[in-house]
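TL;DR need structure tokens for one chain.
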Amino acid sequence: MQNRKIRISLVYLLSLVYAIALGYFISKDKMHLAAIPVGLLLIFLTLYRLKLLYWIILFSVPLSFPLKELGLGLDFNMFLPTEPLLAGLMVIFIIRLTVDRGFDKHVLKHPISQIILFQLGWLLITSITSTMPDVSFKYFMSRLWFVAVFYFIATELFKNPENIRRYIWVYLIPLGGMIIIITLKHAGLGLFDQKASNPAVDPFFNDHTLYGAIVAFAIPLAFGFLVKSKLSWWQRIGAFVILGLLLTGLIFSYSRAAWVSLLGGIGVYFLILFKIKGRTVLLVTLILVGFFMVFGKSLLMKMESNDQDSSDNLTEHVQSISNISTDASNLERLNRWSCALRMWMEKPIFGFGPGTYMFQYAPFQKEAQKTIISTNAADGGNSHSEYLGPMSEYGIFGALSMLLLVFFSIRTGIRVYHKQTEMELKMIAMAVTIGLITYFLHGIMNNFLDTDKASALVWGGMAIIVALDRRKVKS
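>> reply
TL;DR here they are.
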């Protein structure tokens, strides 16, 4: 008892010293020295409270911002404060693997883990063969610490189901806070329209489409806890508030891809709920493909006749999804996809190198496909596809590995849902699977796995599915 009081007193004393030192350095406008107490705190957490450090990093993900926002003029960029912490945690993880001499072999043998390891190995190979090795190795390293922390370390944490619940809420709570801030920024701009959707999310999100993708993924998680979890009355109120904030964020994201992906996720939910067999889904898909092949020309003519551009009016904004005649956003996606395919045809096996699309796609644009928002600059965004992007950057095996991850993640999630007997874990399996599906559908239109915000959800979601699958096998 006495030792416990001493430890508590020491924590309060160190916290006071930390706060005073931090306040002093900030008041003297010595921000570089303000990093000293922060660094000491991180060292302490690393040595004595590593799990707490993990939750702090995860909590910081929705709040992170790009290094370039500090205006230091550096020639590289990363998300702060998360990426430096992720890199450090990855190093600690590797050291511990060396000391402990191994990782859970059952997790490593899981198909999802094997695909991830193959993808990482192929990323390393294609970074060596890259047209821009410096860019590719930076991309490879960021993917490595995202996967190490949000997937491999997470699978260890998730052996305790309580950590699965904690992981979800540690992400959702700050995300809810960010939605409040972004909504207030909308109000500050005096605009709740499509034009304000990008300025409102800056600098915490690259653009409104990333914001929409994250919110769409999170909605099934919050909804699942609200309706299928044993929560106290105040926890249920909290879940209701978070869900309300997420729905508000989804509407004002003005991200058509996010809206469509959530609808697609809801559709898949009913397929899973009613146990529609895979062969039935495949048959219907083949029928739809055949229908498109027969009537595709007429459908394309109909789409080309749609001249409804992106709009502040929600109904008109939805109608603009199929406009491929005048909507600049849709036409630019077609331009980027075409460039990705031409790049892949030039380098079909190894691609141009991870992370290089935005620097290499310009010569592959055709004048007839350019739009008013087309650019040759490296700041013009990426391939707008989680599947065509890897194909152009790290070849056919890059795209194949991504498709295999999609297939096995959904397949495993559905299997876990049907086999799991504990109702709350059954709900989590369903919610995470639907969340992943929203992202995979959104990935047709955009690609965000190079960001910490998407990586924490996608790789973390896969880790949850694998952990629940392993738990099912053990039981």
